[in-house]
Description:
Blueprint: H1 2-22, E1 26-31, E2 36-39, H2 41-47, H3 51-54, H4 59-62, E3 65-66, H5 79-86, E4 90-97, E5 103-115, E6 118-128, H6 130-165, H7 174-205, E7 213-216, H8 217-227, H9 229-234, E8 238-242, E9 249-252, H10 254-270, E10 277-285, E11 288-295, H11 316-321, H12 329-339, E12 343-349, E13 353-361
Parallel strand pairs: 8-10
Antiparallel strand pairs: 1-2, 1-6, 3-4, 4-5, 5-6, 7-9, 10-11, 11-13, 12-13
Helix pairs in contact: 6-7, 7-12, 8-10, 10-12
Amino acid sequence: MAIKKKQDFEGERALAEVLFNSIGDGAVTTDEYGRITRINPAAQAIIGYSEKEAIGQWLPRIFEAYDDNNEPISLIERPVTRAFVSGNVISERTIYKHKSGKLVPIAMTISPIMVKNVPIGCIEIFRDITQEYEVDKMKSDFISLASHQLRTPLSAIKTYAHMLLDGFMGQLTKPQIKSLKTIVSASNRMNETISTLLNITRIESGSVVVTKKPVSVASVIEEVVNEHRLTANDKNISCRIDRPKDSIKIISDGVVLKEIFSNLVSNAIKYTPVGGNVTIALKTTGSLVVVSIKDTGVGIPEESRDNVFTKFFRADNVIRQETSGIGLGLYLVKGLINELGGDVWFDSKVNEGSIFYVSLPLLPHTINTHTVKK
């Protein structure tokens, strides 16, 4: 009986070994000290080290990790460290250095091996995403180039349309004025789309430049509301700003802030029916300033809420009401707020409206003792 059990054990072990080595993605396991205990052929091919070279080595030494700027990732920030410390599965992208020195983009999942809530090792599954990485870069480069090329003729269209409207080329009839206003409106939408595409390209390439200095949040919001006042008036929508008497200043980038609030206010007006209301409120809460943009619009269905900040997403009820739009505004808002170290979230009810909240760090001298609630 004992011999049979030993044979069974050896058979299961051999099967596990065959399964591990046949995994198409790279796979590596470690003990509780982070030493490599097993590495499959796919992992050896991706990283360039043989099984003999890797077994027994400390994983961070063989698997050197870098961020998107090709800077080494500190040990504490490594996914393997966070998986050990948290006991959670970690999935993300990183860059590994091949034995030859070549940097290889990687998509990985690291799972800690737990016994009685104590990590005794981990298993990492990863794959080379060089091709996907290069395709994404090509798409971003194309969008950036195309956007820049579109802006030149668009500027000419807008300039001459405004000159015609202002009477520089003679008196216009009412039908001509109406047509020109349509051209100007379409040009503005095109310009907004181009700006959105360029900003998203910068975010995804990690090239957003944030210049932080003292900024009056109320002043930025007033500027944004004034720029959208004409659109709101055309729909008889009331736009109101509620703010405290004291000036609220933060250390941030005014240009980026304006882009964030412009997208949120524009959405609020766009998806609010004629005669509705949009209210922008400011308040200090703990170490934060919180800005809320409330509308009486169509609202966001429950089943769509998890996708609101994803790329190219538009809820079905929104598409039925407003056919224009490409679903990038809120994706851009989320990305820009992350660049500023803030947060964004929302509450919404279908046919009653939505409230989008933006929180950003305050200057030290404006901090109070309240806490923010989501």
